[in-house]
Structure formats: structure tokens, C-alpha cells
Write a structure and sequence with these properties.
- By secondary structure, the protein is an alpha+beta fold.
- The protein has seven helices and 18 strands.
- Strands 1, 2, 3, 4, 5, 6, 7, 8 and 18 form a nine-stranded mixed sheet that branches. Strands 9-10-11-12-15-16 form a six-stranded mixed beta barrel, surrounded by four helices.
- Strand 16 and strand 17 form a beta hairpin.
- Helix 5 crosses helix 7.
- The chain starts with 7 loop residues before the first strand and ends with a strand.
- The relative contact order is 0.15.
- Bound molecules: pyridoxal-5'-phosphate.
- Pyridoxal-5'-phosphate binds next to strand 12 and helix 5.
């Protein structure tokens, strides 16, 4: 692979792949043998390196610890049926990373650098890409403010890091959700469309409260009226009501999910009517009460779809039917076929790293 950015590669002496059964590996705690890092100083990204996985050393004064300039991405590389490796929609993740960085007053990572860093890390850790079609290599790029100075300011120094970890088949459990009408995830004009750590930090408390009440997740509602449904926990939300796929619009308060976009695209081409529009919990409740055919599911890179089995609105709980023949599962299968190369990549979503 061409290395236009002069990424220095120092190979690890150990190969930890032997230690794991990839189909049955705990997600999120077992990084690959290598890590990519780049430093931003004096207006440029420098010191581009792939090294054996290591900890970071930062001053406690580093601004990321104090004022929340920290953003991330989450994307996946899959093994295709022919042995090649496919990084799914890397382009769109690069664009979103830069939108998040911009919103947090952090310097953009040139798109080519973002892509190059990820492709080279995967190349270096190629043996970590699981071979069964339901597993993947999860990639986690982050950027953090590193300037050691506690005064409130925009940092002048940053780290861009990419780590990777294998992910077995994600058995998404069916979710019991509650419509959240006290707390919010984000208000208009806030940081809801940026993938920044702070959005998660602020969401933990209401989510933990809902967990104690027996729910898996909350359905966030808008900040003004607590009426319109925004997201399902940290996933985008989709409903199918009487055959029409309905999902909230990109109003600035929700994340522009790559899975959301992919499923909308596929659904339209499968002839399913799609409506990107506001949907209130009142409309949802009325659909559930009047016996309309309702499906509900969260969508995101980690689980692709997480079916919702019940929705609580106020004191009432409504069961939602989950059918393996339903639209969500059909969309998921179609997406999987494109990713694995079993169907033509007509949307140009796949970045293929050819097997050597
Ligand atoms: C990452 C994320 C999603 C899902 O986005 P994908 O690109 O599909 O993984 C949805 N909502 C929030 C809040 C997120 O952080």
C-alpha cells in the first residue's frame, strides 16, 4: 500500500491474535497489537506513527481532561467472502469526524490522512480481521486536546489516535425503552450532531435511572416540548408504521448516523416508502393503540439494528412486535450482502484492502 503520509511503522514483536477466539471475544477491551498516533502542533499534524499498542502519556494539565475537547468515530472493517477486507463507508466517517472536530473548535484531520491512518493500521493488524461474516474489526479514531495549560482556552495541541479491536457477532438483545420526558440529550444549537464524549457523559445519568426502572434505554425527546422522538439511547431510531419507514430528520440535535443513511438508501431501493420527518410520542402511541402494524428499532454501527420490544409512554407500556421477516431484518440482511461483497457495491460504500 502506498504510504503518502510517511507513516512510520514499528511492528510489534508479539502477535496476540493467538490468545483469542474471535467469534467469542469480549468487545471493547482487547485492542489489536498496534496503534496509530499523530500529533498536532504549530498548525500541522506531525509524527505519524504506527507502533506496538501502548498507553498515552499526558500532562494532567492537558486540556482534554478539563474542558471536554474530545471527539471520536466508530467504524468497522469486514472480511469479504473472497478474503479481502472491506472498510465500510470510511469516507463518510472521515467527513463526520471533521464535522465533529469543527463543532468542538478542534483542527480538522485531512480526509486523506484519516483514511490512510485507518487503512495502514488495518494492513498492519490484518490478521485481526475476523473471518466469519458476522464478526468485524471495530475501529475507534479519537482526537483529544493535549496542550498542558489549565486556563480556559481552545487547545493549540492535539492527538489523533486510531485503535482497533475485533468484535464477535453482536447479539443485540431486544430493547425495552421508555420515552424520556424529563432529561434531554441535547437542545437545538447544542452539540447533538457532533460525536463528542460530552454527549455521552451527560446521557449516563438519565439512562442509569431508566435502567433502575427496568428499561434498557431511553427514547430521547426534543428539548422544547419533550414531544418529538430524537434517538434511541446512542443509536438513531427508526419506526415502520403500516409499511412506511419513519425516522426523525437531521435537525442538528441528532447524530447523522452512517447506518441510518445506509438503511434509508437501501429501503428506498427496495421500494419501501421512507419518511424523514418528526414523529411525536403521541403519534407513536396512537399507532400502537389503534392496532397499526408497528416496528421500532435503534440503528448504529455496533449492532446495525437493535429491535425494540416494548415502549413505555408515561405510565403505559406497549408491546411492539418483532418479526424476523420484518422490514428491519430485511434491511440488515441486504446491508450485510453489500458489505461482504455478495451483492454488487452499487453505492460505492466499500473500500477494499486486497488480500496479499
Ligand atoms: C455514533 C452514534 C450513532 C450511530 O451512528 P453510526 O454512524 O450509524 O454508527 C447514533 N447516535 C449517536 C448519538 C451516536 O453517537
Amino acid at each position: 500500500m502506498e504510504n503518502a503520509f510517511n507513516i512510520s511503522v514499528k511492528k510489534s514483536q508479539v502477535d496476540n491474535t493467538q490468545r483469542y477466539d474471535f467469534t467469542n471475544i469480549q468487545f471493547g477491551t482487547n485492542p489489536t497489537d498496534h496503534i496509530f498516533t499523530a500529533e498536532y502542533k504549530d498548525g500541522i499534524w506531525n509524527n505519524l506513527q504506527i507502533e506496538p499498542f501502548h498507553n498515552l502519556t499526558l500532562s494532567p494539565l492537558a486540556l482534554c481532561f478539563h474542558y471536554g475537547q474530545a471527539v471520536f468515530e466508530g467504524l468497522k472493517a469486514y472480511r469479504c467472502t473472497n478474503g479481502n477486507v472491506n472498510v465500510f463507508r470510511i469516507d463518510r466517517h472521515a467527513d463526520r469526524f471533521n464535522l465533529s472536530l469543527k463543532r468542538m473548535s478542534m483542527p480538522e484531520v485531512p480526509k486523506e490522512l484519516f483514511i490512510s491512518a485507518i487503512l495502514h493500521l488495518i494492513e498492519t493488524d490484518r490478521s485481526w480481521v475476523p473471518s466469519d461474516l458476522d464478526s468485524s474489526l471495530y475501529l475507534r479514531p479519537i482526537a483529544i486536546a493535549t496542550e498542558p495549560r489549565i486556563g480556559v482556552k481552545i487547545s493549540d495541541e492535539y492527538l489523533f489516535v486510531v485503535m482497533a479491536m475485533p468484535m464477535g457477532q453482536y447479539f443485540s438483545k431486544n430493547l425495552k425503552v421508555k420515552v424520556e420526558t424529563q432529561y434531554i440529550r441535547c437542545a437545538t444549537g447544542g452539540t447533538g450532531s457532533a460525536k463528542c464524549g460530552g454527549n455521552y457523559g451527560g446521557a449516563f445519568y438519565p439512562t442509569a435511572k431508566a435502567n433502575k426502572e427496568g428499561f434498557d434505554q431511553v427514547l430521547w425527546t426534543d428539548a422544547q416540548e419533550h414531544l418529538y422522538i430524537e434517538e434511541s439511547g446512542m443509536m438513531n431510531i427508526m419506526f415502520v408504521i403500516d409499511g412506511i419507514l419513519i425516522t426523525p430528520p437531521l435537525s442538528g440535535t441528532i447524530l447523522d448516523g452512517v447506518t441510518r443513511d445506509s438503511l434509508i438508501t437501501i429501503a428506498k431501493d427496495m421500494g419501501i416508502a421512507v419518511e424523514e420527518r418528526k414523529i411525536s410520542h403521541k403519534e407513536l402511541e396512537s399507532a400502537l393503540q389503534t392496532g397499526k402494524k408497528v416496528e421500532a428499532f435503534g440503528v448504529g454501527t455496533a449492532a446495525v439494528i437493535s429491535p425494540i420490544e416494548s415502549v413505555s409512554i408515561g405510565a403505559k407500556t406497549y408491546k411492539v412486535k418483532i418479526s424476523e421477516k420484518g422490514i428491519p431484518f430485511r434491511l440488515k440482511e441486504e446491508l450485510k450482502s453489500i458489505r461482504s461483497g455478495r451483492k454488487p457495491d452499487i453505492y460505492g460504500w466499500n473500500t477494499i484492502i486486497h488480500s496479499v
